[in-house]
Queue: 2 jobs
Job 1
Amino acid sequence: MPLTCESLLQAHPTPWHSATTHPFLTGCQRGTLHPAQFNTWLVQDFLFVKDFTRMVGRVLGAAPDDHIDGLLAGLGALKDELLWFEAKAAERSLHLSTSPQPTCQRYCEFMASLAAQPYAVQATALWAIEYAYNQGWQLPGPMPEPYTEFADRWGNPGFTDYVHLLAAQADAALATVSPEVQAEAEAVFLRVADLEAAFWQMAFVAAEPAP
């Protein structure tokens, strides 16, 4: 039976829960997150999105013709997103020309490594990364200010539709590959879940003042 995005979610509920449900997100929803923690996440997420944009470009290069339009739409949205990050950082007087934290660096290195993988594996990773953001910002429920805009960006119905498109494309690619490639796609899904959980947690560790 071919591997699918839905079967991955059903087979691995615990790591996926850790990837999409975290005190960082509930802290935003409850208004208890320290601003320094959110600012740490914001700067590191900008650095992540720059490398994620490069990853999507590589996925586009490996994609079949009938998947190109959807991926191009995603790339266009990422251009706008990077400009939006710059505007949000300016509002908070944050400097984006900084080094990635080790957690962010590991995530970026992982995304770069996917270039050597078959398209089905890359498509699975792309879906998982986007779905983690979509679910992470949806699951806590309505977000109060100043986090409403962030939740709306990744939790809105249009982004959810895009994630569903990515799932359909990944499923189509997974249906035609060997069991070995399916196993690699499953491993990549689990790696994304682990890295997402660590990325949320990074905001707490990196924002702590030195003793």
Job 2
Amino acid sequence: MIEIVTIGVYGFDADHFFQALQAAGVEAVCDIRRRRGVRGAAYAFANSRRLQDRLAALNIRYLHRPDLAPSHALRHVQDAADAAGRVAKRQRTVLAPAFIAQYEQECLAGLDSAQLLADLSAYGHVIALLCVEQAPQACHRSLLAAHLTAALSSPVRHLRVKDEG
């Protein structure tokens, strides 16, 4: 049996990010970003090499699945919606309907969920889908997670930054 969790980088500091993964019992991180870098010194821990090194030190496996990431053109669809709504990427709380429709067509329509889950199970029983947005519903990882829910016997969990006060 495989369990899928999701996590975004924004809002976490390095220590809390890795603690959240460990507390959830994550055995592998599936990076579904096309570009595996994050701007800003506060998020340097999520840049590919640093992320992989820290995960290895924690005995958490890493895999990169760029085929599950939105294309450059599709990212521009969301960027345009963000600009029209005057919403900064890091403050986005929802995805644009046009982005959702295109992501479902481009990435999910031909996806064999059972095969993906079988592939992921080779890495462990608890797999985290990783991207950057803080709110799952503002990120394509929620669309992928919802797609996989139909093939799982348990719901997907979203790891979130805990409120400080």
